[in-house]
C-alpha cells in the first residue's frame, strides 16, 4: 500500500515520540482500542496512520503501521488493533501492553486518504472489517469540527460480535447514516441476506453518483478492489474514490 507523509515544511522529518498507554477499551472479541498520551504530538488529519515501534531489552526492535482512530483534538492518540493470531506485534499490543507501559510512535503519515474539515460535499465511507478504523476517525473528526457535510457509512463485517465501535455507531449522530452488511451471520430479523457487498448495497445505501460524493474505501485488498469497481460501475468518478488497503504484514 503506497503511503506518503503529510506535507510539512521542507526539511522536516518524522521523528519517533514516546507514547504512554493511558487507557484500553475492548472493541470486539479480537480487537482493542489503545489510547496513548504522546507529548509533542503534532496533530493529524482523519484518515492518517502512524508507525508503532517496540524495542526489547536485548535491543531487538520491530514496527508496524496502524491507522489512527481518534479525531485530531489534542495530544492523545487512539489506535484500534486487531489481534493477528500468529503475529509478532498485535498480540503484544492487545494482550500484554498495560496502562503505564510505553511504546514509540512516529507520524502522522499519509496525505491523500484523508478528510479535511473544510470539505462540504457528501461523503461515502465503505469499510471492510478493521478497515473501519480510519473511517471512524473521519466520523469523529466531522463531529469534532461541527461539520454539516452529510456522511453515509457502509460497514461490511462478518458477524455482529465483530463490529468495532458498536455502541458509538448505534447512538448515531446528526448527518450520519450507518448501514451494516453482514457476510457470515446477522442479527435476528435482519432483512438483508447474509453475504458479501454488492452493487445494490452501494446503490441503496450510498450516495447517487450525480451527488458527486467523495468516497473513501478501506479494508482488505480484495474488498477494496471490489467496492471501488462497483462504485465506478455505478457511475462514480474514479477521481472521487480514495482507497486504502491492507494485507498480511506479520501482525
Quick overview:
By secondary structure, the chain is an alpha/beta fold. The chain has 5 helices and 11 strands, in the order E-E-E-E-E-H-E-E-H-E-H-E-H-E-H-E. It folds into 2 domains: 16-109, Translation factors (Elongation Factor Tu (Ef-tu), domain 3); 123-246, 3-Layer(aba) Sandwich (Rossmann fold).
What are the main properties of this structure?
Rossmann fold; Elongation Factor Tu (Ef-tu), domain 3; 5-stranded parallel sheet; iron-sulfur; MRET; Ferredoxin-NADP reductase; alpha/beta; 5 helices; oxidoreductase activity; 251 residues; 33% strand; 6-stranded antiparallel sheet
Structural commentary:
- The protein is an alpha/beta fold and 251 residues long.
- The protein folds into two domains: 94 residues, Elongation Factor Tu (Ef-tu), domain 3, CATH 2.40.30.10; 124 residues, 3-Layer(aba) Sandwich (Rossmann fold).
- Helix content is 18%, strand content 33%.
- The protein has a six-stranded antiparallel β-sheet. Strands 9-8-7-10-11 form a five-stranded parallel β-sheet, with helices on both faces.
- The N terminus is likely disordered.
- Pfam families: FAD_binding_6, NAD_binding_1.
- This is Ferredoxin-NADP reductase.
- One of its GO terms (molecular function) is 2 iron, 2 sulfur cluster binding.
- InterPro entries: Cbr1-like_FAD-bd_dom (IPR008333), FAD-bd_FR_type (IPR017927), Flavoprot_Pyr_Nucl_cyt_Rdtase (IPR001709), FNR_nucleotide-bd (IPR039261), MRET (IPR050415), OxRdtase_FAD/NAD-bd (IPR001433), Riboflavin_synthase-like_b-brl (IPR017938).
- Its cofactor is FAD.
